Structures are given as C-alpha cells and as structure tokens.
Amino acid sequence: MKRETRINLLLIAAILAVMIPGGIRLAQLAYTEGRGPSPNPTPARQTVAYMDPRPFDPNIPRVAPPATVDWLDGIARRHAPHDAPPPDDRHMSDQRHLELLRRWQADQTPQWLVILWHHRADTVTLALVRDGRALACYIRAQQMLALPPRVRSELLAVGYETAPRDITVMHLSASGTTAAPDHLRLLRDGDVIDTLALP
Fold first, then answer.
1. Are residue 52 and residue 29 in the same domain, yes or no?
2. Are 23 and 88 members of one domain?
3. Same domain, yes or no, for 165 and 119?
4. Are residue 33 and residue 60 in the same domain, yes or no?
5. In 36-130, where do the E strands start and end?
6. pTM of the model
7. What pLDDT shows up at residue 99?
8. Are strands 109-116 and 166-173 parallel, antiparallel or unpaired?
9. What is the dihedral sign for C-alpha 157, 162, 165, 169?
10. Pair 181, 103 in one domain
11. What does the alpha-carbon distance between residue 181 and residue 129 come to, in Å, rounded to a whole number?
12. How many whole angstroms separate alpha carbon 86 and alpha carbon 74?
C-alpha cells in the first residue's frame, strides 16, 4: 500500500471518529426535544369528567369527581325544595352543556333546577319542548357561581383542561301548560346547540 493511500485512510478514519459520536448526540437531542418519537409517551386517558363536552372514546368511563358532586349537591339543597329527589345519575344533555340537578312540582307546575356548564347565560336562550312544540319557559331565578378552587383543581386533575371558571344555576318552570315538557333545548342565535331530556 502506498504512503498516500495510508494517509487518506487515516484521514477518513479520523473524520469518522469525530462525526459518529456527534451524529449520535444530535439524534438523541432530536428525540428528547419532541422532533422525534417521545421516550416517555403520554399515558392513555383512563377516565373523563362527566361534564367534559369534548368527544372521547365511548369506552373511557366518565367519572363524577367527589368534591364537584358535593358542591353541586349543596347548590341543589340551597335552590330546590328538600323533598325534590335528585336524578338517579348525573343527568346531562346530549352535548354536555346542561345538567339537571332537581325536578319537582309546585302548584301543579313542573319546576327544574338546571346547571349551564359551558356558556354564559346572556349568550344563549332556553326553550321547553313537548312533542316538538315549544312551550312557555320561565326562568324564575338565575345565578352565576364561580367554581371553588378545590372543585376546579379536581376537574383539572381528572383531565378536564377546559373546565369553566363559573357556571350558571337556573330555576325553570313551565307555566300555562297542563302537559309536562319532555325536553329542554339550548339555543344560540335561534339554532339548537344542545338538548336535555326531561324525566
């Protein structure tokens, strides 16, 4: 082997000795900075808060966080008669914007205590419906309540990153009708955006 060939081979070996460790280091940095596969993938979601309106796999169970349930039960005790029974389960609307807390009769008029979760009350309207026909809906009382820090923290902890900072509690009644409504509709600009089945 000629002297020039040996020098060329030594030069190539030196260049490779410098480049290979640098290439490995750059590849490691790319993976850890998110430009490649994550070394620690995000764990799969195990549960979802029951009022979270985002779409999730239907096989993921929806949970009722205990501090949230206690807070809502306290609201129901303050705003509804003590003998008004709670629904069997968390009673949510189709798109999870409305929650029924209590239902009762007063002077033979159906009454409901409803939570508006994800909209400001001044941006939407409510309509009671029976067999597709709109009925008179009266808002007897309405109150905006801020979520207590422990409730909001609990909702964030179960993965509800877009949990609202406040909700609206509404006491509704259907006056001037003998037939009880079967649905409550939530409308924005005249369009139905959610429907709550009434028991």
1. no
2. no
3. yes
4. no
5. 48-49, 62-63, 91-92, 98-106, 109-116, 125-130
6. 0.74
7. 96
8. antiparallel
9. negative
10. yes
11. 5
12. 12
129 plus 153 within the same structural domain: yes
List C-alpha distances in Å: 76 to 84, 154, 183: 9, 20, 20
Of residues 31, 49, 20, the one with CA closest to residue 159: 49
pLDDT of residue 41: 58
Length of the chain, in residues = 199
Confidence of residue 186 (pLDDT cuts 50, 70, 90): very high
> Is the same domain home to 67 and 142?
yes
Query: pLDDT grade, residue 97 (50/70/90)?
Result: very high
Tell me which residue of 80, 144, 69 sits closest to 112, measured CA to CA.
Answer: 80
Identify residue 72 by its one-letter amino acid code: L
Higher per-residue confidence, 131 vs 99: 99
Q: Identify the pLDDT of residue 197.
A: 93
User: Looking at residue 98, what is its pLDDT?
Assistant: 96
CB atoms within 10 A of CB 175: 14
Does residue 168 sit in helix, strand or coil? strand
Q: What is the mean pLDDT of the chain?
A: 86
Q: Provide the residue range defining the domain that includes 24.
A: 1-42
User: Any idea what the Cα angle at residue 40 is, between residues 35 and 41, rounded to 5°?
Assistant: 80
Range with the largest mean pLDDT of 18-22, 53-57, 176-180: 53-57
Same domain, 37 and 58: no
Q: How many domains does the chain have?
A: 2
- Read off the DSSP letter of residue 125: E
Report the distance separating Cα 185 and Cα 125, nearest Å: 8
